[in-house]
């Protein structure tokens, strides 16, 4: 992988400590490439060092910068990526999301009659279920992912449903919720940039 950051976990750390560091790094999107060696395809060395400092693991690790000498699309690299980041398990979770929410997409396309409260509930469940999977996704570069990647389809479905639901959901929020100062403020510009733009 071009510019990958690798971390070696020192043998001087106890087995429990090594496992703890490995678990924390995997939550940050690192994949296990070999015994005690993890890699991240997009994190910079500075970001990696900051993460290790936060985990109090800087003294138990060795940080390296590597560069792939072969094309990103090579079969051995794709197989290694699939195994290191457990892409088959992640694909299965995305597939469950698709199975759960495609019926809603089909129903809304046939007859989009949900009320404001129903849209708020549907949007809340949609984002909750999507984030449960997406937070486990290391968000690898496109060239490292399978051609028919379930995560891509799940993102598209979530985006399309969100666009159908958000206006009525926001109207329900405006009518029923408030904060300590009173009515909720209007959404900021970043709200409308979600999923590449809500227009």
UniProtKB/TrEMBL annotation:
Residues 16-73 form the Transcriptional repressor PaaX-like central Cas2-like domain. It comes from the Bacteria. Coiled coil: none annotated. Residues 85-174 form the Transcriptional repressor PaaX-like C-terminal domain. This is Uncharacterized protein. It comes from Vreelandella olivaria.
